[in-house]
Amino acid sequence: MAAEWTxxxxxxxxxxxxxxxxxxxxxxxxxxxxxxxxVFGLVVVAAVLxxxxxxxxxxxxxxxxxxxxxxxxxxxxxxxLGTDQIGRDTASWLLAGARTTVLVAAGATAIAALVGLAxxxxxxxLRPRFAEPLVVLVDILVAFPVLLIAMLLATPxxxxxxxxxxxxxxxxxxxxxxxxRSEIVRVNASDYILAARAAGTGLLRRLWLHVLPNVVPVxxxxxxxxxxxxxxxxxxxxxxxxxxxxxxxxxxxxxxxAQKYIGVAPLSVVWPGVAIGVTVLALNLLGDAVAEALDPRxxxxxxxxxx
Amino acid sequence: xxxxxxxxVALFVGGLFVTTIVVFVVLRVLPGDVAQVIGGIxxxxxxxxxxxxxxxxxxxxVVQYVAWLGGLLRFDLGTSLITHTPIGAExxxxxxxTLPLCVAGIxxxxxIGVPLGVYGALRHRTTAGxxxxxxxxxxxxxxxxxxxxxxxxxxGRGVGAVSLLPTQxxxxxxxxxxxxxxxxxxxxxxxxxxxxxxxVLRYMRSAVLNEMNLDYIRTAMSRGLTRTGAVLRxxxxxxxxxxxxxxxxxxxxxxxxxxxxxxxxxxxxxxAKLVSDVGNRDLLSxxxxxxxxxxxxxxxxxxxxxxxRVIDPRQRRVEA
Lengths: 307, 320
Fold this sequence. Notes:
The complex is a heterodimer of chains A (about 300) and B (about 325). Chain A is built from 12 helices and no strands. Chain A is mostly helical and about 300 residues long. Chain B is mostly helical. Chain B has a domain of about 180 residues: MetI-like fold (Orthogonal Bundle), CATH 1.10.3720. Classes of the chains: A mainly alpha (about 300), B mainly alpha (about 325).
């Protein structure tokens, strides 16, 4: 029977779940929290958030307390991660650096979500005549390296954490627009959207009630990756001199400062890298866990692999 | 195929055009007086006025843009506002460091990523296979700057555990002494290769894993091939096609990585020049470098897409 079907007919069959999505606590979130790397991701993200909050009221040593008799002190009880070139406590700086990390990650993902949702919804909902040029524009902007966007913005505005946030937000927002668009187009083709249209539901109401709840999970996957990229971009741009200012605590700042003295204190290079690496790894794994929780195909494959 | 090629080339040209507009407009948003920078802090208002008219900075923006674009079409990028040297020639000279660096970086990435990705997929149930996957995850999560620093600590001449490769600078006479030039881009290329290789590895692994479950592998096994043999002979070529597009998409991050790496290893490449020109607010030079770098990314995307069409017959059938 199935052998007689043509490829075109097979493509017509809608196999996506036809149920109406809702805004209640979704199953994929629960399933994410049940997988080991999902747990790892959530725990690390929570830890960074707590570190950022704690550093607002307490750090082991005051940030600017420079102890010039103890420059490049090795790890000890008073300075668990040692001190830097002018005797400031590295552990305190890393703790306070979590603030900048949270700020950069949250800001960039917020802008990316805004840009992605707006452009994605527009390109999926407008008439082809208006949507086509936008789609082409998005395709073009995707090729623009994020670092170049940041440097472009830094030329007139000067470097700052804000430049990093805006550059990553725009750079990954256009990536997101493509994902959102294809997801909306997919959802729009399903029967329950047809039913909603037949029932006279308007475009905006349809988007809000039926389409966007379906897009959110995909959005979460992409945004967790974007947060990771933002943290990496901060370290790169701060090193180049276009990110955090010299007295601004950030992981990129600590890394950039330590880099200059790599011959004197090699160990001090390691800590900020580990902080950044573990956080970005956690965000990537969190994204993977959400993707797997969403995609039954990945779930079964993983059950077979036992990974 | 022809209509696809034409449309794809049109997108490339359109992309370059949009790039020139975006770059030009953003750099002029806040004029941040270039004339003041050229004249220095001691310049009198009259001198600044003179500089402004000399460089055409007093013209309307549209006129400035059209003049610049006209030059671009003749491959004339103008003259630097700060150093008074032709920008095109300087970019060409810097590319003689940056291009070999990027090519070597991609080569290392493929040499690391492809075989290990296939291995990770074939042995995905074993400890070794899992270790490969986890290491790739971790390598993709650290800043490229940090990877470079760790490599310096391991292999850098003077500071490394094994004092092997130079960590700073590039021979003054360029490629006149190929061995010395190669040695000085070895560590930077290795850094880029590891960072990008981790991404290639992850995509290769998941692409091969996907192919392994398809029917044609079972068919090949029923004809007597081992699972490994069937995957290597039929699965890997198919998986490579999808990884090709990934390599194309990665060039954007590669360019960003190259800027950081050139700065870290003090290589006199295009990225390092961009950093100093942004600092000097040498608008024309920044414009030129941005367009060249973005053009490179767009061109590689074009080549990859066209190659994809030629290699993969399934893509063509969808068209027809």
